Amino acid sequence: MIALVIRTIGFEPFNIPSSSMKPTLLVGDYLFVSKYSYGYSRYSLPFGLPLIPGRVAFTEPNRGDVAVFKLPTDNKTDYIKRIMGLPGDRIQVKHGIVYINDTALKRKRVADYIENTGGGGSFRAAQFEETLPDGRKHLILELTDAGPLDNTDLYIVPEGHYFAMGDNRDNSQDSRVREAVGFIPKANLVGRAEVLFFSTNGAARWWEIWNWPFAMRFKRFFQGIA
Q1: What local confidence, expressed as pLDDT, does residue 210 receive?
Q2: How many whole angstroms separate alpha carbon 36 and alpha carbon 14?
Q3: For the chain, what percent of residues have pLDDT higher than 90?
Q4: Which residues pair with 121 in a beta bridge?
Q5: What is the mean pLDDT of residues 187-214?
Q6: In the chain, which ranges are continuous DSSP H helix?
Q7: Is the overall model pTM greater than 0.90, yes or no?
Q8: Counting beta carbons within 10 angstroms of the beta carbon of residue 218, is it exposed (0 to 12), middle (13 to 18) or buried (19 or more)?
Q9: Could you list the active site residues?
């Protein structure tokens, strides 16, 4: 009962199953999400029980927050993306550059992202530091500036909704894809990602105790998420 209360009103653990938030979050990362950051809705409760009307004790997300939310198209699946657009914002992507309220975000090329994929292989991608209007910075990956999501229509975020994008810009199904994700109602927000507490590259099965030390990404343990 105590654990249930903590998971409902305090912190809930989540794990990352996809690469859509690289380089910020990797497959095999485990993190804590603060449930109180944005207040509470029915999706704060186990099984999404409809006991809370709308949202109570609501606090507006900040642009740049990494947030967990229920996928608006089914209200069941947990998604994690970065909040890029607030209510009333005008969002558009042109040649890979994000425009917020008709102003292009600054993007600076940094060292390439390189990941060991096992078997002697590796994954390399162009990595950029993107700066939000308030000066907040985060890293993104761009495989190309000419992909299907690198040139979009203009999105105007409705009242009570948010626009979210993955940091792995060419491999993220997010608010740019209207029919799959679209705008996120504030009631669907679950919480804000706060800290990584464990990470594994998946090279060791749960029973292969002797391989655990080689599969764990110790440098990612207890890192804050920005």
Answers
A1: 87
A2: 15
A3: 81
A4: 118
A5: 92
A6: 2-9, 212-215
A7: yes
A8: exposed
A9: 20, 81
